[in-house]
Specification:
single chain; 462 residues; alpha+beta; 5-stranded antiparallel sheet; 18 strands; 21% strand; globular; binds flavin-adenine dinucleotide
C-alpha cells in the first residue's frame, strides 16, 4: 500500500485525499506567497477531530513525511505554503464551536472555526471577541499560530492575550491538552505559549479556550488632521488617560496613504488635504454608556483642538459615517484599484515615540537607492507597529534588494522585523536582525526537542 492508502486506512477515506483527487490551487498559496512547482503535495488531510490529527501525524512521523499545517490561508509570510513535497493538513473540517461560558467569559472552539464565526458567536451571546483584522476567514487556529494582532491590540492585546487554553498535537502524535479556562493558573511552565506564534512549527493546534470581553454599548470614531508625527504622539498621550481605557484604536496614516484611501479610490475625503497636514489619525473608543460616552469623547476632542494638538477633526455621527472613516484606513485591500500594485508590504515594530524619525530614515534610505520609488506609510502606532507599502515598478528595486535595505535599518534601530504577520519563509533570512544568537539557539533547541526529525513545517520561522 502507498502512503495515501495507508493513511486512509488509519484515518478514513474522506479524511485523507491523494494529490490527484484533492489537488486544488487554493492549498498552494497564502495571501502573498505561491508554492514552487517542486512542492506538489503527497496528500491533503482534512481531519475532523484531535484523534484524527494525532493518528495522521504519528504515521507521518514514523514514515518521515513532512507535514504543513494550514488554516484559512490568509497569512502574509508563506508559513502555510509547502516548499517541498508534504502532506498538507487543512483544519477546515474542525469547525465546531463547542461551548460558550457566559459566567467565565470563555468560548471553547475547534481550531478550524473562522475568526468571523467566533466574532459572531460572541456577539450572539452578548459578548465581544475583540481580535479584528481584514482576513476574517482566517481560522482561529491560524490566528493563534501567528499570534495575530490587528486594530484593537491597544486595548485588548494580541491573540496571545485572548487565549486561556490550547490543545495541540506534537509531530509524534502526542496530544498536549492544556484547555485551561481560568485567568489565574500558575502551575509550572505555561505550555500554551509554545504553540502561540510558533506558526505551526512545534505542534498542530486542534482546540482553544478563548477569552471573551463585555460587548461595548457605544462606539465613538473620529478622524483627525495633525501637523506632524510628534503631534500624533501628543494626541495619544492626551486621549489615553482622558478616555479611561476606552480607547480601542489609534491608527495613523501619512498623507500619501490618505490620498490613496480617498481621492485615488474616488472617495470624497472627509477632510480636504491641506499643505500643513503632516499626518492623519483615525481614533476609536468603546464604552458602556452611549449618551455620556459620545459627549465625553467630543469634549476630549474639543480640548485637543483648543490646545492646538489637532488641526482639524471629523467625528462620525452614525455607524455609516464611522464605517466610511474606517474604509480609508482599510484601503490596502484596494491598492490595486488605486494603481498601487504590485506592492511589497513591510510590517515592523519600533517604539511608538521613535516611529516618526524611523519613517523619515526609511524614506531617506530607500530614496538613496531608488529616488523615484513610491511608498505609503501607515500603522497601529500605539502598539509600535508601522506598515510600509512600496510599489514594485521600474522605480523600485527588487523585493530582495528592498528587504535587505529596510530590515537592516530595523536592526540598527533595534526594532522587530515582524510586528504581527510572523516570520514564515519570507522573513526567515532577516530574523537575526531582531533576535540574538543565544535566542536563536534556544529556539532551535525547543524545535528539536518537540520535533526531533524536523518534519513539522520545516523551513519556517527558524
Ligand atoms: C486583508 C488581510 C488583512 C490582514 N490584516 C492583518 C492584521 O491586521 N493583523 C495581523 O496580525 N494579520 C493580518 N493578516 C494576516 C493573516 O490574516 C493572519 O496572519 C492570520 O492569523 C492567519 O490565519 P490563517 O488561518 O489564514 O492561517 P494560515 O495562513 O493558513 O497559516 C498561517 C500560519 O499558521 C500555521 N497554522 C495555521 N493553522 C494552524 C493550526 N491549527 N495549528 C498549527 N499551525 C497552524 C500555518 O502553518 C502557517 O505557518 C491579514 C490578512 C489579510 C488577507
Amino acid at each position: 500500500m502507498n502512503a495515501v492508502a495507508e493513511l486512509q486506512a488509519i484515518a478514513g477515506a474522506k479524511t485523507v485525499l491523494g494529490p490527484d483527487e484533492a489537488f486544488t490551487e487554493r492549498h498552494l498559496r497564502d495571501f502573498n506567497i505561491v508554492a514552487p512547482e517542486s512542492a506538489r503535495p503527497v496528500a491533503i488531510a482534512y481531519p475532523a477531530s484531535t484523534e484524527e490529527v494525532s493518528k495522521i501525524l504519528a504515521y507521518c512521523n514514523a514514515h518521515d513525511i513532512t507535514v504543513v499545517p494550514q488554516g484559512g490561508l490568509t497569512g502574509m509570510c508563506g508559513g502555510a505554503v509547502p516548499f517541498r513535497p508534504a502532506l498538507l493538513m487543512s483544519m477546515e473540517r474542525m469547525r465546531t464551536v463547542e461551548a460558550v461560558d457566559a459566567d467565565g467569559a470563555t468560548m471553547t472552539v475547534q481550531a478550524g472555526v473562522t475568526l468571523d464565526t467566533v466574532q459572531k458567536t460572541a456577539d450572539a451571546n452578548n459578548m465581544l471577541f475583540p481580535l479584528d483584522l481584514g482576513g476574517r476567514h482566517a481560522h482561529i487556529g491560524g490566528n493563534a499560530s501567528t499570534n495575530a494582532g490587528g486594530n484593537r491590540v491597544l486595548r485588548y492585546g494580541m491573540m496571545r492575550d485572548l487565549i486561556l487554553g490550547v490543545e495541540a498535537v506534537l509531530m509524534d502524535g502526542t496530544v498536549i491538552s492544556s484547555m485551561n479556562r481560568m485567568i489565574k493558573n500558575n502551575t509550572g511552565y505555561d505550555l500554551k505559549h509554545l504553540f502561540v506564534g510558533s506558526e505551526g512549527t512545534l505542534g498542530v493546534i486542534t482546540r482553544l479556550v478563548l477569552r471573551l470581553h463585555p460587548k461595548p454599548l457605544s462606539v465613538s470614531t473620529a478622524l483627525c488632521a495633525l501637523d506632524s508625527y510628534d503631534s500624533a504622539v501628543k494626541l495619544l498621550r492626551h486621549v489615553k488617560p482622558r478616555l479611561g481605557g476606552q480607547l480601542s484604536a489609534f491608527e495613523v496614516m501619512w498623507p500619501e496613504f490618505y490620498y490613496t484611501g480617498t481621492a485615488a479610490l474616488n472617495r470624497r475625503p472627509p477632510m480636504e488635504p491641506k499643505p500643513e497636514t503632516g499626518i492623519y489619525v483615525l481614533m476609536e473608543a468603546m464604552g458602556g454608556d452611549p449618551e455620556r460616552d459620545a459627549e465625553h469623547f467630543a469634549s476630549v476632542m474639543e480640548l485637543a483642538l483648543e490646545q492646538g494638538i489637532v488641526l482639524d477633526a471629523v467625528i462620525a455621527q452614525s455607524a455609516k459615517e464611522a464605517r466610511d472613516l474606517w474604509s480609508i484606513r482599510d484601503c490596502p485591500g484596494e491598492f490595486p484599484a488605486a494603481g498601487h500594485f504590485p506592492q511589497l508590504g513591510f510590517d515592523v515594530s519600533i517604539p511608538t515615540g521613535q516611529i516618526g524619525e524611523f519613517a523619515k530614515q526609511v524614506h531617506e534610505r530607500l530614496a538613496a537607492h531608488w529616488p523615484k520609488h513610491k511608498a505609503l506609510y501607515f500603522g497601529h502606532i500605539a502598539d509600535g507597529n508601522l506598515h510600509v507599502s512600496i510599489r514594485l515598478d521600474e522605480n523600485s528595486g527588487t523585493e530582495h534588494e528592498m528587504d535587505e535595505v529596510l530590515y537592516a535599518l530595523v536592526g540598527e534601530w533595534k526594532g522587530s522585523v515582524s510586528a504581527e504577520h510572523g516570520i514564515g519563509v519570507h522573513k526567515r533570512p532577516y530574523l537575526h536582525y531582531s533576535r540574538s544568537p543565544a535566542e536563536l539557539a534556544l529556539m532551535r533547541s525547543i524545535k528539536s526537542a518537540m520535533d526531533p526529525k524536523g518534519l513539522l513545517n520545516p523551513g519556517k520561522v527558524i
